[in-house]
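Deliverable D2.4 — example input (structure tokens):
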């Protein structure tokens, strides 16, 4: 029983972490696009 609860908790934490990392990835992508736009203007 303890293993099952631990496994479920681990999966929930893993999925929450992936969602956060995906959000950070989108922010980094937008920042990269902004740098790219500035570079193209010069």
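Example output (designed residues):
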């Amino acid at each position: 029983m303890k293993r099952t609860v631990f496994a479920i908790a681990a999966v929930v934490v893993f999925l929450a972490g992936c969602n956060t990392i995906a959000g950070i990835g989108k922010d980094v992508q937008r920042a990269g696009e902004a740098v790219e736009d500035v570079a193209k203007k010069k």
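The mean pLDDT is 83.
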